[in-house]
Amino acid sequence: MRSLLGALLLALAALPAGPAYAAERLWATAAFPAAVQAAVAAGELDRAEADLYWLYAVKAPERLPDGYRAPAAAARAARSPAGGLALLELRCATPILRAVRSRLDQMPPAVRREAEALLQRPASGPRGALRRAGKSVTHVLPNWIETENFSFEWGPDLTAATGQAAVDADGNGLPDVVEQWASYFETAYALARELGFTHPILDQELVPVYLGNSDPDSAIDDIGGSFLGFTAGEPGELPYIVVQGDLRVDTWLNDEGSAAGGTAWDRVEANVRGTMKIVAAHEFFHVLHFLYEPPVWNSREDDWWLEATATWFEDEVFDGVNQYYSRFDGPTGWAGTVELGLPVPLLLDDPTVDYTIRAYGAVIFAKYLAEHGGGRASQRDLFDLIRAGPEAPPGRRPLEALDAYARTLGYDGLEELYLGFAAANAGMDYEEGAHFGFPGGTVPVRKRSLDADSAADTLPDTDPARPLPVPAYLGATYLAEGGFSGGLRVGLRGTSEPGSSPWGLALRVRRAGGYAVVLGSLDPGGLPEAEVSSLGPGDEILAAVSFLGPAETPTGYATEVSGAAIPAFSLPAPVLAAPVALPGRGADRGGVRLAWAPVEGAAGYVLRWRSGPQEPLASRTLFGHPTDPQTGRVEVELRSLQAGGTYEVRVLAYGPTGAAGAEAVLPGVRAGGAPATGLAPVRVLAQDVSVPGINVPERSAGSKGIGGVECFLRALVR
Question: What CA–CA distance (Å, rounded) separates 594 from 626?
């Protein structure tokens, strides 16, 4: 498991300019949000000016006042020719642009005019083109190619994404970096089509993609050095995409880089290729967001779901990159702050919350939907519930759509769906969960005792001692205890102001046999309770105490535990349908879909599988009855099996007190093959490349070109 902070510190340690450079880089990473917030708090900036500064950071870093810029050395590494800021923790600038746009009406006239000018679409160029397939596009920059679904444009100052001068190694007249971007974007488009994402606009127009920082005479030239890209435009119209033209400040923070052989520079190049892939998938999914977004959407409160789902899509398209792992890592990662909950406050509104970790880390919620009922089609189904339609003329906001979607799966709304999600996080019960967060793939247990005074306890190993965290709306705090025998009753008391306490209690009972069952309890009166039967000395309980009320603020809670005589409860084995082989999610990975009729009286199901009789059984727990609304069956997809491998699969239902029923066993289940490993083919259907960008002058004291790369290479091999 890689730590983003650790990797950045390693990169800092290697840089040639000594302690001063390291100090500048750390300043640049952390200081801008803090400086803006401090200035607002001190009355030096009003909210509108602060929003304008955020807009500068994305699209015009040279306009930032000196006190908000990175020092010169850091600015060079951040790719800004004017000494702009570096915010390495911020990946996608889309939500910042949307937040500023949402507040234009609140700005003074002069500030608004400047903001609107920066938010305008790129000005049309002197010529347009009608593609022979019938899709239209107007070109802006002097060099362009048109592929099946995109228009890629760049200026005379193009570099490769590694910061070197752009080259045409294959001699076909096109810079290789342009062909790379085209291949990655078309691959993302192909999977979106496969998953059922279509829109009439995409059949009529090409999606414009501009290679940022390639044309100093264009208004789209200067994307801030800490942003990998952004998607911009008005909801309901085809937006445009700008991608970062220099990604070399990234080190190998993803699996493509870490797995690469050769020199340190080979690993950097592999990492940059991985970063390009996820930027392409992420930003194209934002295009779909813009097209489907309903009028009811509130960008300042709802855009976290755009970032979470775009991150989900990037991993579906390019499963081997896994750059999102770093959003879970360590005590400040998503898994270490689960009690902060969902939705995630927008960075501009609450700088005390790490928006980058929280919004991108919330991808785990999208993964829960796909892996615990709903499959890969879950996001497509959600899009249908979000956009305006006969049942919801103005459309739905994300949490409203999630509530409606939960009910289609057989849950009692979003609250019950969330309980299963919270319990899954206790053991990181996901295909790639072992890579998330902490040793053993679990979220940190806040307290290893279930008793009647939880609210009064403090966290261990903190100096000074801190109170046990109270979960925020749709957040959870985790408690654990073992060493029980027999039956157990666990209850919850919560307090909130004003009114009743909408708490939830999810129990994840890890059995000594190596699997877990999940029990959930909801009670708007503030007293959820769950009973667990047949606990043995090797079993462990993790309690996810969840707060589910959006209009209230929790102030504390307490658990109540007592022994209980719980009657036996038995269930029949599920009757399994014939498995369906599916492609997997990455190289050498295969998949299978399992389905069965719901078992009456079941609280959930446990799937177990292994490739041989001597192998340990892997498992996944399904809480509730996540039934397919079309077939009425419980269906689940496993997509990280060995491609073409043969497995023994077991499924059991468990009762309302966690007692396991009879187990259905299917031997010889064959997983499907790996998905196509090649990238989508790219056909260039029209082009005008007068300046291919092969001989690129250095610019801004080594910020681009061969000299800058040589300096960077020297830093890496120190």
Answer: 13
